[in-house]
DNA sequence: TTGTACGCGTTATCAT
DNA sequence: ATGATAACGCGTACAA
């Protein structure tokens, strides 16, 4: 506990007024009127004494803790989670809210236990962050507390949620390739059927369609979403005649792109001269470490954390009546392209630009 | 705020005793004695009602919040920070403590402001985590609160701190190489003069000395601690006659090792057949993504977070008198080797094993 | 315009 | 062996 003993009484005594007046002035109470002169005096002495209301006493009185709990699966095991936390934290600070952290496993029982623990700490609301974009059903104990989901959506839309625009991200990625003149673009994708997989495929197809290049299923190959999977998939999609071979690869994530780099190297394909690559996730460790540096698409983790906290704050003030609102659409935040050095125009292959 | 209205009074009424008795029993108060029978009854009804003490009221009464603040520079921008948080969080939970997060910049003024904010939230103690191992002087406002440092040490040893055993880590890394028969081992290191640089160099030299191989300054080359730096350094150290060239490289961190992989590839050196490499940091994204997977040394981030929270908890109970203790030695936690596929025996070069 | 006194849910002290 | 009650620091209805 802080050693400082400066309380509201000290301020009152020092300023020669009652605690009521101090409280009124410092909390900007509507109806309470004080002379401008005392207002000033109270504020300045409070400042001078370094007074700040004891949050615990205030919480007890107001029946709200001003703490919000961030419940996260396998917290920050991934750099992504860190950005979410950061975004939420800064937004919380701006509103005078405090962020408390609870990490939980993906086990149903653990989640139940951990949320209960969170609630016992009287958090005013909770942010529930999953490790990657997917659908969940809300832990039962969270139904009684304002909650917003990060990187996942609830089945029934009963709570607000925010997710990345997977499709839009894939679209800009593929469009970057198309803009450089590529027409045969491979898609090294993930074999898990999660929203990200579906969304990125949709974005890939949409970009192709808009550019009027026909979708060729032989150019999309799915593997596990790790580096070795990326390698395998890239080998397979690249292993064909020069004329038939894609001139560019869109990879499901940066790890798979890392595998694709190796495949390209083994095949004697230089990046980006012989093969352009764009990834997804903007894992800086990888994207900046690869040579040449990887052009990729950033997931808006910081922004999601920020948005979620804002939504939660609103939910918390309007709790009384608007609790009836029971159908939220997920907010989808856009995924910006970050250009580095892995994209260039294709080499003039055989001549014709048609397919 | 949680909706649940079950308070101590409810338990008391339900169990047919006074709140005093309930409090005594649930808090295991020494001197207060109650019949075993009521004990049982109280405990079971508390359980049945799902009672948990209101932490805010308890804090107000006990004059301690049971919250500890984690002040971190650029929180979780790095995956490392995440592991620290995780370790601290789990240790906190075990003790019934709550972790609140504050991120701060490295700017002196911001730190001051942020710590003040933290203290106003009546945290009982603070963990101060820096982004990488270095020396700092403690923000003034933290002198009044139990504090422990993570990944940094204070100039004057006035607070406990925990740091990784850089030297020991480097020692096991180089020893792994020596154990496989390498004698000419290059060191691709960092040009910044930070504790990690000094410690890892010391470990390198100690391992060499113990194996009775002479230290050759031409084999250590320093560059910026990023991937391109690793590439440059590795090129430079590898660019010599076959007989003179090191058969293995110890890299300052995994990013530099990533650069070294590229250098090796360009030189036509296969890993680990022609060149063994070991890194430092165990950044899984890189270490597992490289091909072949990188043998490296893990920084004990989780353990540091855990240790720090334990130390802080002790500091908090013994605050009264032992505040006099004013000279702490940093705790140094060991860095284990994690073996993957980048180390093998050197190829029989010219024949002689001497230097 | 300002001050007094009570309540928030616990724990701790002191009676019984 | 158990219960009544003050106190923690603040906010606020109500009296002055």
Automatic annotation (TrEMBL), chains A, B:
Residues 6-62 form the HTH lacI-type domain. Pfam families: LacI, Peripla_BP_3. The keyword Coiled coil does not apply. PROSITE patterns: HTH_LACI_1, HTH_LACI_2. It comes from the Bacteria. Keywords: DNA-binding, Repressor, Transcription, Transcription regulation. GO terms for molecular function: DNA-binding transcription factor activity; transcription cis-regulatory region binding. This is LacI family transcriptional regulator. It comes from Herbiconiux flava.
